[in-house]
Structures are given as C-alpha cells and as structure tokens.
User: Fold these one by one.
Assistant:
Number 1:
Amino acid sequence: MGIDRAVWASSATDLWATPQDFFDTLNAEFGFELDVCATDENAKCARYFTATNDGLAQEWRGVCWMNPPYGRVIGDWMRKAYESAQAGATVVCLVPSRTDTRWWHDYAMKGEIRYVRGRLKFGGSKNSAPFPCAVVIFQPVTEARAA
C-alpha cells in the first residue's frame, strides 16, 4: 500500500525512500561504499549512517550515496556533501529540483547536475512524487580534472 496522497501533497514527511531500480543504475556507475543518510530499513549500502549516529557529524570518505531529508535541513546536507568532495569523497545526491532555493545556488550548482526525467515513485509507492528530482554529483578535484 502506497503513501496516502494527502501526505505526498503536503510537508507531512521529508523522508523519501530511494527507488531501488533508480539506485541500482547509479550504483552500477559509481560503486557506492557508504549511504550517508539512511534508516536501518532503507539503507542502500552495507555501511551507512542513521539519525542515531548523525551523518552530518561523521566524516564521509570514498564513494557516498545521499538521499537526504527534503525539508529545511537539506541545505546542511548539501553543504556537507560539497565539503566532503572538497576533502576527497565522491558524493552522489538525490534531491528535489528546487532551482529557486539558496541551497541549490550555494551548493547544487557547484556539482554536476543530472535532471531526472518524469517523477520518481519513492519507497514503493504507487503514486509519483509531486516534485521533480535531480541527481547532483560532487567529485573531488584532481590535477587531471583541474587542468
């Protein structure tokens, strides 16, 4: 049974579980090692951070997957993703395409942006999300990429 339509159209939740097939396609490309923002039920990697161990307070290394809460704290997660890439991590972020927001301009636009065609169906829901999404990729700057 999917999430009630009224919940999808409201701000009642800011947690949107990543569709498995969508993740699998990106995982085949990137080979994720760490899910930085998960629950025990929806973690996409063997290594993951939950609210209990606070992913924002942890060091992100390697190739990281991030599907953050889509509420007011999303800017904090995007800043952490960007800063982690500056420190050497690759962070691939699934976020709502909110091109009018401060966090989008401050962080998303510093990464590679891939707009998602259509609307994703999160968490096995029968209904599509009421918002468009994008994948933002932050990669460490290497000498080869900088040249």
Number 2:
Amino acid sequence: MTGLLTARPLPARSKAFDLMFAGALFVSAGFLGLAYAQLGGVVGLAMVFPLIWRRTHPEAVFFAVSALAVLQWLANVQLQPGNIGLLVALYAISVYGDIRFSRIALGIGGLGVLMATSRYYASSDWREQLTIMVALGALVFGVWAIGERRRTRGLYVAQLEERAVQAERTRDRESKLAVSAERTRIAREIHDVVAHGLSIMIVQADGGLYAADQSPEAAKKALATIGDTGRASLTEMRKMLGLLKADEQNELDPNQPRPQPGVSSLPELIENVREAGLSVDYQVTGTPRDLPALLGLTAYRIVQEGLTNTLKHAGPGAQTSVSLDFGRDLLTVVVTDDGRGGGVAPSSEPGHGLVGMLQRASVSGGTVNAGPKAGGGYEVIAKLPYNLPNGGVA
C-alpha cells in the first residue's frame, strides 16, 4: 500500500497541467467566493489550492480538502464555489489513490451529503431534502465511479503493456536459446565431419606408408583417397563455418531449412569407407519411407560415427555391417563389426562421438545402445521412432 505522503512519479508536463488547472479553479472559484463571504471565500480558496498535488498525493489532498469542508460545516459557512474541490479531490483519489482509501473516500463523500443536507437545506420539507440528498449522492457516487472506471482501464492498459514487454522478453530469450541450440548443432556437425574425415585419412596414410615400397600403385591410390577425403571434409566444414559466420551478421533461424545428409546419402558414405579399406555390408529391410530431415540426419550421423569408430578401433581386416530396418513405428539402425579394438586402450568415459549419438537420438525421441559384443567386436543399435517428440509425424 502506498503511504499518504509518498509521492507518485509524474512527468513535468503533467505537473504543469495540474498547476494550471488548480490555478484556474483558484481564480474562478476562490475569488468568486470572496465576493459573497469573506470567511467562506478563504475556505474556498484553501479547498482549491491543494489540488495542485491531487495526482502526486491524492490521499493527502482528499483528506485535507475534506477537513476544510468539515471546518466550513462547523462554522456554518454557506457552500461556496470552492466546494468543487471536494469533487475534484474525490475523483483524483479514485483514479490515482490506493483502492482502500478510495473506498473510504466514497464513504466520507456519502457522509458529507448527509451533513450538507441537514445543515444547508434544513428549512426545506422532507421531500425536497430527499430529492437534494439523492441528487448530491448521485453526483458524489457518479464522480467516484467515473474515476474508478478510469483506474480500472489504466490498470488494464498497464497489464497489457506488461504482457507485451514480457512477451518480447520471452521471444528474445527463446530466440537466444534457439541460436545457442543451432550453434551447438553446427558444432556437432563439424565434429562429425572432421572426425570421420580424419579417421579415413589416417587409415589411408598408414596403409599407403605400409604399401609404399611393395605396391606404389596402392600407395598412390591411398594418397588420392586422402586428398579426396580431405577436400570433401574441408568443403563441408567450410559450409558449417559459413553458417556461424552468417550468424555474426544475422541471427540464425533454426526453422530455416539447410541442406543436410540423410538416409539417401548413406550409400555414398559407405562407398567412401570401402575405398578406405574397410569391408562394409549394407542392408535395408522393410519398406523405405520418407523421413523428416532431423530423423534422416540423425540416422546418417549415427552410421557415420559407428563407421568412424570402426576405422579407429576395429583393427585391420575387420568386417563391418550396416543395416536399416524400416519398421511400422520406428527405424532401427545397426552398425556392427567383428574387430578387437586394434590395440586401443579402453576408456571408462564415453567418447564425444557416443555422447553425440545419444544426444541426437534423444532429440529425435529415440535411444542408442552401444557396447562390445559377446565374442568380440562392437555394436551400435539405434531405435528412432517416426513420431517426433513435438507431435510431428514422418
């Protein structure tokens, strides 16, 4: 609750208007009252003067003007033009004052009607007194009701403005979160591209070094594969970095479609891995169907990461298989090999590639299980439902 002496902030233009308004009443009502009665005119001037602060201190102004009206009643001074200040103060407290003080002011206004009727119209018959009482009461209540309606409308407008500001803040916050998510996605894409390309290049470099003396043609082929893989990875990475660079000039739009690999790109990926020297068996079962871009990209990256891990850890001569099963409700992706790790030391913590697969599957509403197979080798099984978490359907 706002205190009686607590000033409301008010623009300079409004202060100037209040001063001019009170001054006009002071001149027109106050001096007019001086012409009829000296004491009444002084009281009338005193009732108009506080209206300068009617918006900054509405409660104090109303109670001050009401006290002067009681003094006028006790002194048996006739009603003066300055009594208009009572209605102005009542309107001000109903618009700008605390709502509880506003209701108290209405009660005081009703009591003032009874006091004025009993004192100033005592000589009239009861019918005339009743008519005057009803008229004055309607005037007091009407002024208060108009002010209360303006207060309610002002609060409604203030709520709308606050909601608009809150909606703008929420939009900005969601936009920043979307940009952050898009940056994270691009970073994950860059990791997948670089990790896969480097794995193929390392395998080819090791094979070319081994075959350099015995089979120069094989060494040349390995070098050609390294060059092709490096250029392809560099081109794709430049595209990803171009998106980040574009974000410095314009905000990323996660809803804007971007060309991304999908299930249809898997044969080309597997062929590149085969050229790197890894034997890969690729099978598709079930009835293939069009997949959302996110789901197709998730399946592609899971296969890419599985093959990258095979190149890194399965060892030479490992047999690898990739299978896609288009079931009724979900797509099952399986990447398996029979290697023994190629001498790579096991780690108790999951690598970035596995974490990336888990995150991608989670975004698509699916699951990923990865681990060693019984009898040797490694297996990755991903189950990706067609029904997306946000309600979209493939």
Number 3:
Amino acid sequence: MDELKNLKLQLIEEVENNKDELIDFCAKLIQIPSVNPPGDTTEITTFIEDYLNEVNIPYDKYESAEKMFNLVASIGNGKGKELVYCGHTDVVPVGDLSKWEFNPFSGEVKDGWMLGRGASDMKAGLAGIIFATKMLKKLNIELPGKLTLAIVPDEETGGEFGVPWLLERGYVSGDGCLIAEPSSPLNPTIGQKGSYWFELEVRGEPGHGSLSPLAGRNAIVDAIRAINEIRTLWDIEIDIPVDVQPLIEVSQKYMREVEKDRLKYQEVLEKITVNIGTIGGGTKSNVIPDYCKVHIDCRLPFGITQEKVTEILENKLDALHIDYTINRFGFKSVANYTTAEDPVCKSIVDNISFVTGKEAYGVMQWASSDARHFRQHDIPVLQYGPAYLPSIHGYNEKVLVEDIVRCAKVYITAAIDFLYQK
C-alpha cells in the first residue's frame, strides 16, 4: 500500500510540475469551436489525435455521423480490469455575443479563471482526462489492466452519435467509468434523474380573428389549457424506492450545507419538474390559429417510469377534449444511479480526499447525462469534473484554473487505485 501511495504522490507532483501544459491544452480545446448543433468535431478531433500521437497512444477513430468523430484510446497491459474515462468534445451554442464580456472562444486565462464556451461543460474535464492518460504513458507507468479514453462528439443534443453509438457496437466496455462532466469540487454525481422531453402539438380550426371566440377553434388557447394541466405533474406525490432514499437524503444535505444556493431546490430530487421551453403557433394576429407546438422538458425522480408519465399525460389531456399529439424527442431515460460502494465510485471519492485532504461523498444530479447509457450497459459510472456551475450553458462561461489542476490529480491517482485493486 505504501508503494501505491508513493506512486500517487509522485503522480500528483508530476501533474503540478506540468500544469502549464494542461492549462495550455485546455485553452486550445476551447479555442476550437465545436458547437452542437451543427456538431462538426473534425478540427477538435484532429487536434486531440495530434496530442495523443506525441506519446504514441494508440487509438481508433469512428465517424458515427457526418463530421462527428469518436476517439477510443487505451493504455495499460490489458491483463486486468478496464477503467473508462469519458468526455465529450461538443459544446452548446454561445447565444447573443453582445452579452459576453469576452470572446467565447478565447481560451484566455484571467485572474485565475479559464474563460470560454465549454470551460466548465466540459473541455476542462476533457483536457484533464486526456492529460492524465498522456502523463501515465509518458512516465511509463506499468498499469495492470486497461485505461481507456472514450472521447465523444455528441452529448449536448442527446448523445445519439456518441456514447450509446460506441456502447451498442461494442467499441467501448469496461468495469467502471468516470465521465469528466462538471461537478462540485468534493461531490461527484453518482445518480441522476430521468428525462422525458416531448413536443405537444395542438390542432385547431382556422377562422377570422374578428369572430373569435365564436368562430373556429383556437389552437393556442387549447395549448394553454394543456400546459396548465401538464404543469400539474409537479404536484404528483411519488413513492421514492427505499434503496435510493439514502442517496436522496445525502444529496439534500449537500444542497443544504455545500451548495447552499441550492437549498430551495431540494424538492426537485423527489418531484417531476416541468419546463415549458418553447412555444409557437398561428400565422398572424387576425387569423384564428389552427396549430400550436410546445416543447417541454420534464425530469423524472426515482419511482416513476416513462410509460406511467405518458399515461398520466394522456389522461389529463384527453379530459380537455382537445385535438393533440405528443411526440417524444431528445433525452429519454429513467432515474439511475451507481452505488457509493462500487469500486469506481470509491476510487474517485477516496482520491478526491487524498488530493484535497477534505471529506468527499457522492450525490445525485438533478439533470441528465451520458452516464445513463453506461448504466444501461451494466457499467458502473459517476461524474466528476472541474466547473463553475452557475456559468454552465450561460454567458461568460468559466472555470477556476486550480480546479482544472485538482481534477487532473484526482483522475491520475484514481486510475492507479482502480486498476491495482484485485
């Protein structure tokens, strides 16, 4: 054990001594626009290939859709367990440029912050797992088993051509996985809510606006009635399964004591959340609209299935006697988790404490990610990565440089613990 501890201390020192390379690598990833949509990862994939080639890390490259590239790279002797480190190269659009205080693709470091789109979600984490793997290779560390990088192009729009594409074809497997998605410094996410995204299409009868509401049937008005019913999904009391109640409780403790600005959000872990995301319909103000489309994002807690939500929705909307259709799209999953006692969770949590000297524990995520796909393929998984959480998907995205370095230290030491465990 002392031998492994000394090796980990040596690796922490190597990360510290080479942190300028890590930060420069992260900056260059941010400087390459890889916005999804459209999802063209050609340039950033080529850049990562060149970085892996510097130390001759072998990899396979798969184009899962036009200009969407997956990289699968591995090191180790292959004679033991396999640990997967996963990250996505795509980022969400930048939105209104006038609302940014800096160039979203600058990759600038200022006052201890790495700036730019993807800094927190998740090019800093991506840089960390690639850098840690490269350091292990460069230092000729004899790893039992295999450490695999799964670098995917398509997470921000649902991930169809990234993680699930690789898993379904058997290009990636493993005994445990770490996704370098954003998290808090001491609390990786070991569970997540389910996702239920859908489009509500309401149809009406057109007519002259001057005769409304006596003429025609207003699809927008019917859609408003439907929306009011859909929002009542929040009010449903759901029985949380006994086996996940400890995870819910520790996650609520985290929201009370760590991310205290999340205190008011504790209920979301046990409720169906409902976001009315977009709405559109009609042709002009003096025409009774004959259609309305609404996009809605619901997140599901443990204790309810996709099918049950569909049944509830249809019962509510049928009672309105409107002409409607529900079309599913985007994320589709039920709540899922990996036990805190699983070796991959223990390896990450123990090494967060080893690196920081502070107590760490896993919590639940109220959103969704690629983790669900690994669990569907019976691969235990958790998420841990550098982030300034309030900036994710927003303007002026950023992350602390010290957090990037800390996470890289955790990645490199956790790989040692996981792969050397019998």
